[in-house]
Amino acid sequence: MRLFCFIAVCLILAACVGPALADDVYIGSSQSPIELDGISATYSAQHEDAVPFKGWAFVTVKNTGSTAWGDFHFKIFAYPGGSVDISQVSFLDATMLDSLGNPGYNPISTQSGTTWTIDNNVIGAEMSLYFYGDPVAPGDVATFSVYTDNTASMANFGLMMWPSPVVPEPGSILALATGLFGLAGFAMNRRK
Q: pTM for the full model?
């Protein structure tokens, strides 16, 4: 009887969860991550959309450059060659609703303290993830998961992705420059 109840619960959960996961896309994997150097590399992939026209994009990438990444960006584009209407394709987080009134999900990242911004007002919606407190170091692998909604357009679209190197904040640059000028002044005074 317990086995029957367990199987029944599993089937009910699969029926409830299955359709929501039917439109997920996996780009790269832990065994074969997408390699990006963070300087010139942009990676594009087709997102073949189908019912329910919303779901996760799981992206696994490896930093092959010499500079750590502090953020990672996503942009929706028309695939192939601009023949698809992407004006209603968007990124959603838990504070937003899709066109059917269902909430989205916050992005997930292997980098701790990740924050994000979403701009669904542009055609070719954009989402940026920020993790300056836990950058992706050269040689490291990271996974980012973002939730997309295509319930209004219901068309295949592309997903463009790229990292940005960590850029020191202006205060750090000013402190470094002040220290270097002070050291140079000290060295010049010692020579006199």
A: 0.73
